[in-house]
Amino acid sequence: MSNGASSLRKNSSKVTLQRVYDEVVELRKRVEDLEDLRELNAAIARNKGKKLISWAKAKRELALED
Q: Which domain holds residue 9?
């Protein structure tokens, strides 16, 4: 994984506020994705061994059937 400063420098020798801002936005998205993944893995661990419910039954119970 590269750090933000080096990726800014390798694309061009000139660092602008816009480029720094764009890099921060991209890094924020990556952090959010990693947080989502951590939450998903925690949910999977919490539900390990629990009985599963079929998609058809879930749709019926949530009134999602067409």
A: 4-61
